[in-house]
């Protein structure tokens, strides 16, 4: 199976940056300014429902424990412990606010 141009680009971006996990299981953003603009946050423990894992802009990565968001404002690795822009709950972590 040949990779699409989008898939090739995703693989290059994911390979280029080591990923770290925060204390609540979300990925620490690889680009804090992009994360701030997209309001990318880690969900508090016990919150299911809306998250990157069920977003139409997220692409699964075969053999990886994370996915990749292709939305032009995010464009970075994410997982189902994260969400962006229009979701908030008490206890959410916004890395860009220190």
Can you offer a commentary on this structure?
With 98 residues, the chain is α+β, with helices and mostly antiparallel strands. It has a single domain (5-92), classed as High-Potential Iron-Sulfur Protein, Chain A. Helices cover 18% and strands 13% of the residues. It contains two helices and five strands. A three-stranded antiparallel beta sheet has the order 2-3-4, with helices on one face. Strands 1-5 form a two-stranded antiparallel sheet.
Succession of helices and strands: HHEEEEE
Main pleated sheet: 3 strands, antiparallel
Which regions have little confidence, pLDDT < 50, spanning 5+ residues?
none
Oligomer: single chain
Q: Report the sheet-strand fraction.
A: 5-15%
As laid out across the biggest beta sheet, the strand order is 2-3-4
Which structural class matches the secondary elements?
alpha+beta
CATH class, named Few Secondary Structures
Number of strands: 5
CATH architecture level-2 label? Irregular
Shape: globular
Arithmetic mean of pLDDT: 80
At the third CATH level, what is the topology name? Answer: High-Potential Iron-Sulfur Protein, Chain A
Q: Please give the domain count.
A: 1
DSSP helical segment count: 2
CA-based gyration radius? 13 Å
* Gap from first CA to last CA: 43 Å
